Structures are given as structure tokens and as C-alpha cells.
Amino acid sequence: MADENTIEQPVAAEAPQAEANEGGRGRRGRGERGERGGRGRGDRGDRRGRRDDEEQGEELIEKLVHINRVSKTVKGGKRFGFAALVVVGDGKGRVGFGHAKAREVPEAITKATASAKKKMIRVALKEGRTLHHDGKGHFGAGRVNVRTAPAGTGIIAGGPMRAVFESLGVADVVTKSVGTSNPYNMIRATFDALTSQTSPKSVAQRRGKKVADLLGRGGASEVEAEAAAEAIVE
User: Fold this and answer.
1) 159, containing H or E segment
2) Same domain, 151 and 136
């Protein structure tokens, strides 16, 4: 009997230890899964950070066009805030505008800038400095005329329209605003004129022709038309 007791005691002592080892393995397994999950969340955070860095790496021209104090009548009085109108462009043919309201001026500008970045459009430029052709745009009571100009003309525009063309990257243009001087309507009318801009290359693709064929209709020879087509830089 003494021998049997001495034999049974190590076996009884090993059982709790085995259960502890099994429990430890279970805890380690859960810990490993937690670590893997943590790494996954970290990777998603890193991807978001890389996207933010890429967006911030793009150099954009931001111009504050107009800022106005606004008020909202609530129970107990009026609540004052600010409305900002911002134009954003990359100086290489892309431009957008946005407007937003906030209780403070910096916050309103930040919100308007973020809105402008989401609504940027691309405009075809001739030689990277002017428009391909004349155009008109209107919104409400605002009407604008835009005209292409030779090199050295500069930006002949005032107020909100100048901010749009400077952000767009246009160096030579002649504009005229007819009607309202409301900056919101002027900006929208200007964008209406810019969205109607087309390039000879896009027109040729749409009609299934060559750019030289379109340029040769003005009486120019084939050699001159081909040279002009090669000289077009969008």
C-alpha cells in the first residue's frame, strides 16, 4: 500500500500541471489571435496614413475668395458664424471651389477647402498657358465671357475670376463679367464657361478624325495643319 501511494502521488500532481499547460496554451492562442488582429488594424492605419501623406504631398494653390458673417436665429437670440468661399487648384489644369459655414473663421476655411478638393475639374489648356477657344458661362444673374489670348497678355480678370484662373494655371486670358457681382454666382458662372472648353484632340477623337484634318479646314495647307497639330500641348 505504501508503494501504491508513492506511485499515485506523482500522477495526481501531474494532472493539474497538464490542465494548467492546456489553459496556458489556450490563453497564448487567444493572445496570438489578438496580436494578429492588432497587426491588421495597424496595417489599415498605415494605409490611411500613406493615403493622407499622398494627398498632402500634392501641392495645391488655395485662395480665399470671400468670407461673410452669417447669423442663425435660435431660441434665446442669434447664433453668429462665418461662411467662407475658397478656390483650390494645382496650377496645371485642375481647379475646384467650395464653400462652408462654421462658428470660427479658420474652421470655415478648412471645411471649404476640403469641399473644393473633392469637386475639382480638369480643363484643357492650350500650350499650358491659355484656353483653347472663347466661351460664355452664366449662373443666375451672373454672366461671364472668357477669351483666349496671345502670350504676354496676362490675366485680365478681377475679383473671384482672377482667383480661379490663377489656381487653374492660366497665364493669358481676357475675361468680362456682366451682371451680378455676387462672388458665389460669378464663381459658378466661370466654372460653367470652363466646363464647356474642349480641345482639338478631344474633338478629333469624338468625330473619328485626325487633329490635322480639323486644323486644315481654315484654309491652311496640310503641312501647316500637321505642324500646328504637333505643336498643340494640352
Assistant:
1) none
2) yes
Q: Are residues 8 and 47 in the same domain?
A: yes
β-pairing, 173-179 with 142-148?
A: antiparallel
Across 8-12, 107-111, 167-171, least confident range:
8-12
Q: Are residues 66 and 39 in the same domain?
A: no
Q: How far apart are CA 203 and CA 210, in angstroms?
A: 9
d(CA 123, CA 194): 7
- Cα 228 to Cα 124: distance, rounded to the nearest angstrom: 17
| Contact yes or no for 98/113 (Cβ under 8 A) | yes
Q: Quick one: 53 and 65 in the same domain?
A: no
Q: What is the pLDDT of residue 216?
A: 56
The domain tally of the chain equals 3
Tell me: the pLDDT tens digits for 61-117?
A: 999 999 999 999 999 899 999 999 999 999 888 999 999 999 999 999 999 999 999
Domain membership of residue 39 as a residue range: 1-57
From residue 142, give the alpha-carbon distance in Å to each of 78, 159, 182, 186, 190: 31, 13, 8, 6, 9
* Three-class secondary structure of residue 17 per DSSP: helix
Q: What are phi and psi of 96, to 5 degrees?
A: -160, 160
- Residues 81, 6 share a domain: no
Do 91 and 129 fall within a single domain?
yes
All three cell numbers of 90? 494645382
